[in-house]
Amino acid sequence: MKKTLLALTTAGAMLAVSAHAQEAQQLPELLTKENTATLSQAMKELRAAHGNERNMVKLLDAQAKFEFSPELRPKLKEIFGTERPFVTQRVPGGAKGQINYVTRLAPYLWVQGNGTDFSWAELTAKISTDKTGRGMNATAVWPSLVIARQEGSAHLQNMSMTSKQQRGADGVSYGTATFGIGSIVVRDAAVGGKDARELVRFEDMQARSESVRRGSMAEIGYRSSTKAIVFGAERVERVNLGFRLTNIPAKAMAELDQSLRAQEESQLAPEAQQALMMRQLKDFGKRLIQAGAVLNIEDISAAYRGNVAAIKGRITFQKAVETDFDSMAALVKKLVAHFEVRVPVALIKDIGRAIVSKSVPPDTPDAAKQIEAGADGLVSVVVGKAVTEGFAVVEKNELRSNIDFKDGQLTINGKVIDLSKLNFKNEPKPAQ
């Protein structure tokens, strides 16, 4: 998977600027069809230049010499201001035996001509490896990216990435990667406009992914956090997402890696490549289920005015046989899931205050009293209904509930939920 990381390092900015060539097809207001085609062709030429090579030294040396086709260069210059937007160079320094490279994307203002402009500061990526070319350490910093239209804009600041990967004997690269964005600010007018109003702001976004080999098994972990999401006077803090997928057969990881690389290097049309990739991922998922993989939901949480709502859980499958994969209904019956949900009563009241305050004019003589009464009413309805109907209990000033699914039966706080209206009689038959 180092080739994928290299592509992210040397051409990831291209994808970010274009909102990814494939995703751009869903966002025609941001990119013209011509520019989408140019960026897609650029990625295709980069992949072709990398070929089957996996040695990082040879890959990066080839990258340093690489030039896009004569037909593509003027089109890239219109987008990036240069015919070689990602310049890779070997640089001296580092520890003994370490080979170092630097890749840069020059700052530019891209006036696309369709009402959407992009401007960015210089992106710098530093990559190091050794003569074996099996390991890779990379860091990248990108101070600013602005996507602007007359009716709105988004400004991303202080973006960063670090990655440490080591390719094993089976060809799979294991390691860690961290990503950070200092802030994302979305406004309802062009950047710099006198009347530009901030719609939403994301502060200090961090994400970390890791893949680890443990004997014949592997596991994948992911964790992200956002310090705050601000919209108007409201502020949601400590928004976290963390999960870990365990009991992954390392052999299945290696075979998926091989098949995805073969798919990338194929000459199939984009639609055919996508269909092939989906089949490969479905087959991988099937193998995970059969191997007893477990998805641990370690943390889904957020805080509002100091009170934290959280979910933790675990998802797996009972032993599945081949025929279970022929029917969604049969497969669902093998699903086993458990979730623990905790919501502070004070948080429900705070949400009530925020909702009611929008309908009470601030100059109302007893505004505060009305808002408090409305918030108490919401707590009474939400908490009262959940407890009296048996869906939750109140412990230590928290509304708590356990959600379980097993043998096709859903229970919330021990109460069975009727799922008879859900059926799979009309599901499509599996492809032969």
From TrEMBL:
InterPro entries: DUF945
Protein name (record): DUF945 family protein
Pfam family, one: DUF945
Keywords: Signal
Annotated signal peptide: 1-21
Domain of life: Bacteria
Organism this protein belongs to: Duganella radicis
